[in-house]
Every structure is written in structure tokens, then in C-alpha cells.
């Protein structure tokens, strides 16, 4: 796709949605590459009006500025804000994420993707990188903070925007599937470019201009070995693990402090939702299921699958429900056998890629409207799909914003299984009810309200601790960086708009 690549329709882009999942043992991690990310915002005005970069950078040692007159003998710690781990001051493992860790030295930090078994040495701009001989072969050295980034997965886009670093995002792959309104706008204006596919010269130039290329962790393109960083958020086995990759991304921007405030807030909000949902006496049975039509990818054999993915299981249990992934098997080749297995499931989250309404759902599962009384999920009017937030090409935010916003995803799952644990007027983000005909919410560049590229994209969750079950959703998420007068003012403004 050439430089100004929007709007892109599936027929002309060459990067249209893939209707079959690429073969991969990491499943969704690769699948998510095709899905773009993120969101601007309508309701959530409060969070982060203050740029994390401004809050943390200027004036701090190192921080957002390059060091001048570096002298190692001065023994200065250039990273006063570290990802914290009370247990150790060496390998600083993070609270939830299982697949990365960070270690700090005076003028550099070593960020390790433990899934990809790869170290990234991030040294403060203006200081001298440590000797490569001190590290494993293949270790990558990057001067930080980075100011130009390429995102090969649209999942990365969400993390970068939540840190308020859209200004650093220069190149995006599969840009036709980006859900973020402001990144869509940036693409339209040419401030962000879609990664070129056909012209290899241009593609190499685009990569050359980037300080870092955030990839999926498993493939590195020729010529980009020195700057491609593998990210594994979609493989980290839990919603809070996934969100905590905000801290991984933050190390490249020296934004550890704001990232930790953000993940702390997501954790707290998540745990509050979890407590509210688990106070309910019933445990509805939930299955995350999908149908795959016969094709050359599956020996022309139709199949129905019940997902056993860890993060879905954790979300289900934390939403006060029971996770169902089959009794003796989770993949079926006849709809009769599959339907017998899910007969008593109370809530279905339909992950079938194609087909977006109840009619398509019934057809793909081998059901008709006459079956309503025989299947609990139909009688309960409880069939949901993950495409509640999409771009005009059906680029799903489920694969981007939802990876980072663990608390908001749990809120959506609770809305599906225990709606009375949330305010009556709470809106869906990703999980829309297709029995009730809830529509896809289509995000375009016109939904970009935060035109300042350093305004962090706020989390979509409501604030659990102040929610009122009588119908008002409480104020927007409390992710404010600092209790400044500005934040207070905007909080009042948001309250005035919401109540
Ligand atoms: C790293 O690579 C060099 C040559 O490419 C080799 O001599 C050296 O043994 C390697 N070191 C390790 C630790 O694998
Ligand atoms: C490929 O890109 C290069 C660099 O932008 C440009 O000079 C060249 O004309 C392009 N080639 C084609 C065939 O468009
Ligand atoms: C990558 O580079 C190596 C040698 O540098 C070459 O053998 C290989 O074919 C290249 N791969 C691609 C996909 O261009
Ligand atoms: C594909 O399907 C045919 C007939 O349905 C069967 O004989 C064959 O074993 C299948 N192949 C694989 C790899 O499953
Ligand atoms: C269901 O998931 C669990 C892991 O959560 C797994 O151990 C079990 O084998 C799965 N059951 C089926 C039938 O796939
Ligand atoms: C996007 O903007 C349109 C108006 O341009 C509005 O109607 C719609 O509600 C917005 N969608 C979301 C999800 O904010």
C-alpha cells in the first residue's frame, strides 16, 4: 500500500481480512497480526489528559532527553523510574505478565522476551551502549527513548496509543484493519503510513526510518534484524498478563512510571469487577465456540470448536461464570454432535469469523429458530460476538484494544453473564448480543476526538468502585496520571456530561 493508503477496501488493498486463520501453533498471536487496534474515545474524558511523557520526561534524569557529556564514571542512574519488583533489584519481573522481564543498569536496561528468548538492550540516548560481548549473540541494542516506531501487528498500535505515544508511530502494517480512529486519521493525513508490500525499495526505506519495529516475535525480515522487537502479549496466558505488556512497551519510551500507574489501575478495576461478579450465587455456563467452513485449509471438512484458551477461561471464571470447553472433546465434525455437547450452555460467545448476525449463527451451528426452546443460550437470548467494535473493513478491535484493556473486557464478559452486577445502562464494547440485534459499532477517523498525538487513548472500562447499579455507570475510568486542577476540571466536565 502506498503512502496514503486510506480508505482501503478489501478488494483493492491486497490486505483484506483473511477469512481463514493462518496456520500457526500460536493461533491467535499470528491471527492478531491481521487485526488492527484501538480506539479514540467518546465518553472517557477524564483519563490521562496529562501526557505521561510530560509528567515523566522533561527534567527527569535521562527521561525523554538525550544525555549530554556522558561519563560512565559519574555513576548516574539514568532510569530512576523502574518497573518495580519488591522481591529483587536485579531481574525485575512484572506482577502478572509471564513472558517478559526487565533488568536495569545505570545507563541501560535489558528487556527480555522470555517467549522468544531474546534480549533487548535499551540504552539511554547520548550514553554509550554496553559492549555486545557482554550479551548473548543476537542481542539487539536500541537507543531510547525511541521517537519513530513501526508496528507490524495492529495489537502493538493499541499499546502505543494507550501510552500516549501515537506521535512516535510512523508505519503500520495491515493498516486497512486498524480500528483506532486517530490512527485511521493519521493514515488519511499521511502522518502515519501503511507498510508497503510491493515496492521493496520503499518498504526498506520505511523500515530504515524507524528506531524500532514491533513485530510478533517469531519472524524477522531481512535487513531489520537490528531493530525488530518481538512482542508476545497475545500469548501471555491471562487478561491481566496481556495488559501488563503496557510496561514492556513503556521501556522503549522511558514511560515506566505512567505504564505502571495504568496497569495498577487496570488491575484494581479488574479485581473490583471480579469481586462484584463472583458475589452472584449462580454460575452460568459459558462456551467460546466457533464454526469453520470446509475449505482447502481443513481437508474440506467442516468443524465446530470449543476454545480452551487460558485467557478466555480466566475471564469466564472471573466474570462469575463456569467455563465450558467440552466434556471429552473440544472439536466436532458434525453439528449434531457439537449441538449435543453445548445443549446446556447458558451463554455462547460465538467466535466464528464469517457471518455477523443471528441468522448466520443459526445456519453455521445447524440450528433454526424452532430450536429456541431446546438450547439454553437461545432461550436466554445470550449469544454474543466479539465484533462489537470494528473499522469499516471489519478490522476488529478485539484483536487490539481488547488485548490491553483487560478490565474493560471483563466488564463486557460480566455484561454477558451477570448483567445485574453492572449498571443497567452499561454499554458493550466488543461483545455484542446478536440475539438482541446489537449492532457493530463502526469506528472511523471521524471518531478521533483526541487529535493531540500525545493524548493517551483511555481504557474503555467504567470505574467499578464507584459504579451504581441503579442505572448510572459512574464516572469514566479513573486512570488519571496526576491529581491536577486540569484533571479535576475535566472530571467535572465529564460528570456533567454523564449524569
Ligand atoms: C557468537 O557468535 C560468534 C561468531 O558469530 C561465535 O564465535 C561465538 O562463539 C558466539 N557466541 C555464543 C555465546 O554463542
Ligand atoms: C519504489 O520506491 C522507490 C522509493 O520510494 C521509488 O523511487 C520507486 O520509483 C518505486 N518504484 C516503483 C515501481 O514504484
Ligand atoms: C535473506 O537474506 C539471506 C542472505 O542474506 C538470503 O539467503 C535469503 O534468501 C533472504 N531471504 C529473503 C526472504 O529475502
Ligand atoms: C481428508 O479427508 C479424506 C476423506 O474425507 C480422508 O480420507 C483423509 O484421511 C483426510 N486427510 C486428512 C489429512 O485428514
Ligand atoms: C478444557 O481445558 C482444559 C484446560 O483449561 C484442558 O485441560 C481440557 O483438556 C480441556 N477439555 C477439552 C475437552 O478440551
Ligand atoms: C463514531 O462517530 C459517529 C459519528 O461520527 C457516532 O455516531 C458514533 O457513535 C461513534 N462511534 C463510537 C463507537 O464512538
UniProtKB/TrEMBL annotation:
Highest rank taxon of the organism: Eukaryota
Q: Which PANTHER family match?
A: F12P19.7 (PTHR38360:SF1), OS03G0120000 PROTEIN (PTHR38360)
What's this protein's name? Periplasmic binding protein
Q: Which organism is it from?
A: Linnemannia hyalina
Amino acid at each position: 500500500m502506498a503512502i496514503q493508503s486510506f480508505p482501503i477496501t478489501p478488494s483493492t488493498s491486497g490486505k483484506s481480512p483473511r477469512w481463514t486463520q493462518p496456520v500457526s501453533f500460536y493461533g491467535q498471536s499470528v491471527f492478531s497480526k491481521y487485526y488492527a487496534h484501538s480506539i479514540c474515545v467518546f465518553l472517557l474524558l477524564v483519563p490521562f489528559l496529562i501526557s505521561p511523557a510530560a509528567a515523566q520526561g522533561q527534567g527527569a534524569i535521562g527521561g525523554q532527553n538525550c544525555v549530554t557529556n556522558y561519563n560512565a564514571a559519574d555513576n548516574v542512574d539514568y532510569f530512576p523510574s523502574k518497573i518495580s519488583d519488591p522481591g529483587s533489584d536485579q531481574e525485575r519481573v512484572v506482577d502478572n505478565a509471564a513472558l517478559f522481564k526487565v533488568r536495569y543498569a545505570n545507563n541501560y536496561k535489558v528487556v527480555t522476551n522470555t517467549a522468544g528468548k531474546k534480549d533487548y538492550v535499551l540504552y539511554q540516548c547520548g550514553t554509550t551502549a554496553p559492549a555486545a560481548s557482554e550479551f548473548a549473540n543476537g542481542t539487539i541494542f536500541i537507543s531510547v527513548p525511541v521517537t519513530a516506531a513501526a508496528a507490524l501487528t495492529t495489537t502493538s498500535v493499541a499499546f502505543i496509543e494507550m501510552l500516549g505515544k501515537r506521535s512516535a508511530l510512523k508505519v503500520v502494517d495491515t493498516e486497512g484493519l486498524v480500528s483506532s480512529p486517530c490512527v485511521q486519521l493519521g493514515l488519511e493525513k499521511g502522518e502515519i503510513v501503511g507498510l508497503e508490500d510491493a515496492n521493496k525499495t520503499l518498504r526498506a526505506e520505511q523500515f530504515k526510518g524507524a528506531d524500532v519495529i514491533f513485530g510478533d516475535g517469531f519472524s524477522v525480515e531481512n535487513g531489520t534484524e537490528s531493530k525488530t522487537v518481538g512482542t508476545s502479549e497475545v500469548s501471555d496466558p491471562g487478561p491481566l498478563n496481556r495488559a501488563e505488556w503496557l510496561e514492556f512497551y513503556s521501556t522503549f519510551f522511558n514511560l515506566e512510571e505512567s505504564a505502571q500507574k495504568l496497569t495498577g489501575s487496570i488491575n484494581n478495576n479488574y479485581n473490583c469487577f471480579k469481586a462484584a461478579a463472583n458475589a452472584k450465587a449462580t454460575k452460568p455456563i459459558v462456551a467460546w465456540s466457533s464454526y469453520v467452513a470446509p475449505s482447502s485449509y481443513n481437508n474440506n471438512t467442516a468443524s465446530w470448536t470449543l476454545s480452551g484458551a487460558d485467557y478466555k477461561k480466566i475471564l469466564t471464571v472471573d466474570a462469575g461464570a463456569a467455563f465450558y470447553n467440552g466434556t471429552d472433546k473440544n472439536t466436532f465434525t458434525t453439528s449434531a454432535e457439537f449441538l449435543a455437547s453445548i445443549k446446556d450452555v447458558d451463554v455462547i460467545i460465538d467466535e466464528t469469523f464469517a457471518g455477523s448476525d443471528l441468522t448466520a449463527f443459526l445456519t453455521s451451528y445447524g440450528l433454526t429458530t424452532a430450536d429456541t426452546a431446546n438450547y439454553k443460550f437461545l432461550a436466554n437470548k445470550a449469544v454474543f460476538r466479539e465484533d462489537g467494535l470494528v473499522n469499516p473493513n471489519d478490522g476488529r478491535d478485539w484483536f487490539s484494544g481488547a488485548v490491553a484493556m483487560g478490565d474493560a473486557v471483563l466488564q463486557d464478559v460480566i455484561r454477558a453473564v451477570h448483567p445485574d452486577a453492572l449498571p443497567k445502562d452499561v454499554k458493550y464494547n466488543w461483545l455484542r448480543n446478536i440475539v438482541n440485534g446489537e449492532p457493530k459499532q463502526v469506528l472511523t477517523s471521524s471518531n478521533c476526538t483526541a487529535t493531540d498525538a500525545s493524548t493517551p487513548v483511555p481504557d474503555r472500562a467504567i470505574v467499578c468502585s464507584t459504579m451504581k447499579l441503579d442505572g448510572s455507570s459512574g464516572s469514566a475510568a479513573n486512570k488519571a496520571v496526576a491529581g491536577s486542577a486540569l484533571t479535576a476540571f475535566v472530571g467535572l466536565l465529564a460528570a456533567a456530561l454523564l449524569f
